UniProtKB/TrEMBL annotation:
<dbReference type="InterPro" id="IPR006015">
    <property type="entry name" value="Universal_stress_UspA"/>
</dbReference>
<feature type="domain" description="UspA">
    <location>
        <begin position="150"/>
        <end position="274"/>
    </location>
</feature>
<comment type="similarity">
    <text>Belongs to the universal stress protein A family.</text>
</comment>
<dbReference type="Pfam" id="PF00582">
    <property type="entry name" value="Usp"/>
</dbReference>
<keyword id="KW-0614">Plasmid</keyword>
<feature type="domain" description="UspA">
    <location>
        <begin position="3"/>
        <end position="132"/>
    </location>
</feature>
<dbReference type="InterPro" id="IPR006016">
    <property type="entry name" value="UspA"/>
</dbReference>
<protein>
    <submittedName>
        <fullName>Universal stress protein</fullName>
    </submittedName>
</protein>
<dbReference type="InterPro" id="IPR014729">
    <property type="entry name" value="Rossmann-like_a/b/a_fold"/>
</dbReference>
Length: 279
């Protein structure tokens, strides 16, 4: 598997890249090649006083490259200029990446757990699965919040095609997963279905049990995002797995409101699976 690892060379990014357990988890799910990417914003120019960004970022990426190569990954570096999420997505497409990874600070005391703009824009436009790796906030020496990335997974489903595509990610995540909680939320707005959601979740749980993953299921009723976040708070998964939904040709792969709320407000890591590239 090929991964795009986006970094702004901040302390938060370094915390994730330098974390041996996080890197080991990526290796377990099959990642063997990593493209380290940093983007110099278009409005930053080389001639600006003290702004030798290209050289500084190349030096920073070389340091990270050494860490990842020591961990056993084939690693390439990319220093590019432009709008961060667009350039990151462009490289992901060009390199036929299987996943994009970005570190993001956790709760914001001012904005109630709002993720950074690049992570948010990637979540809305990503062309490949996106792992948002939560980093501690309000500290000069941050660390990742939950370093065993896929050890305990919370999978949220509405049984749609997009949710099924996200569940398919267990084909490779299972190599690092020990426990899973499967949750479906019945919304008052949903049309009545003849299918029993508990039975549908039980069927998915049977699949995971064949891979020796200990699984629990929950059916709730209420606002989907609120209920899923409530389950996350109760079971403290290392990663929440969700699918996103393409809604607009003009803005490509816009997140549905539920997925957007989860990726913005979840306490732990989030693994977001978008529709296929052809969507």
């Amino acid at each position: 598997m090929r991964a795009i690892y986006a970094t702004d060379l901040s302390a938060a990014s370094e915390a994730a890249i330098q974390n041996e357990t996080c890197l080991e988890c990526l290796g377990r799910i099959g990642v063997d090649t990593i493209h380290l990417v940093t983007v110099i914003p278009s409005n930053v120019h080389a001639g600006m006083p003290g702004m030798n960004f290209s050289k500084r970022r190349e030096q920073g990426l070389t340091r990270y490259q050494n860490v990842m190569e020591d961990a056993g990954f084939d690693t390439e570096t990319h220093v590019v200029r432009g709008t961060p999420h667009r350039r990151i997505n462009g490289i992901a497409e060009a390199e036929k990446a299987d996943v994009t990874i970005i570190g993001s600070r956790g709760q914001s005391p001012l904005n109630n757990r709002v993720i950074g703009s690049t992570a948010r824009n990637l979540a809305r436009t990503t062309v490949v699965p996106l792992l948002v790796n939560r980093i501690e906030r309000s500290t000069d020496e941050p660390d990742v919040l939950r370093e065993h990335l896929f050890q305990r997974v919370l999978y949220a489903t509405d049984f749609s095609e997009n949710a099924t595509r996200a569940f398919d990610a267990f084909q490779y995540l299972r190599h690092a997963t020990q426990e899973a909680t499967l949750v479906h939320v019945e919304s008052p707005k949903d049309a009545t279905s003849e299918a029993d959601p508990a039975e549908q979740l039980a069927s998915l749980a049977d699949t995971l049990s064949q891979w020796d993953i200990e699984t629990n299921v929950e059916v709730r009723r209420g606002d989907p995002a609120e209920e899923i976040l409530d389950v996350e708070a109760a079971v403290t998964p290392t990663t929440t797995l969700v699918g996103s939904r393409g809604q607009s040709r003009m803005r490509r792969l816009l997140l549905g409101s539920v997925s957007e709320d989860i990726i913005a407000q979840a306490t732990g890591n989030v693994y977001l699976v978008p529709p296929p590239r052809t969507a």
